């Protein structure tokens, strides 16, 4: 309904269809935050929801690797030097969506792959 035509539908008393007080708060931890190749970073999803609503998770690990899943945790291998900022978006459909930005992950690769070339 149009709130201008039906003012009783405006404001905090109006509840959109499908929303029953639930919600989602995206959050995660990562360890370690300094990774020395070939170590991996372990991402633990600590997202909370009310009413145990189903949630889809979209991960962006900051280096171009992404994942969309309904499972919670990941172990990620970073292959290049750099500082990467991961994000997690939790989509609980009609109950809302939230995005968490994690701590920066510093990756140290002793030697980026450079092929050895034999001189003639």
Brief summary of the model shown:
This protein is 0% helix and 39% strand. It has 120 residues and is mostly beta strands. Strands 7-6-10-11 form a four-stranded antiparallel β-sheet, with no helix packed on it.
What would the keywords be for this entry?
12 strands, mainly beta, 3-stranded antiparallel β-sheet, Immunoglobulin-like, elongated, 120 residues
Question: Could you describe the 3D structure shown?
Answer:
Helix content is 0%, strand content 39%. It is mainly beta and 120 residues long. The protein has a single domain (22-108), classed as Immunoglobulin-like (Sandwich). Strand 6 and strand 7 (66-69) form a beta hairpin. Residues 9-21 have low confidence and may be disordered.
In the CATH scheme, the class would be: Mainly Beta
Please give the largest β-sheet: 4 strands, antiparallel
Instruction: Tell me the overall shape.
Output: elongated
Helix-strand sequence: EEEEEEEEEEEE
* Termini separation: 79 Å
Question: What is the CATH superfamily?
Answer: Immunoglobulins
Unreliable stretches, pLDDT < 50, 5 or more residues?
9-21
Write the layout of secondary structure elements.
Elements: E1 24-25, E2 28-31, E3 34-36, E4 40-45, E5 48-49, E6 56-60, E7 66-69, E8 74-77, E9 82-84, E10 87-91, E11 97-101, E12 105-108
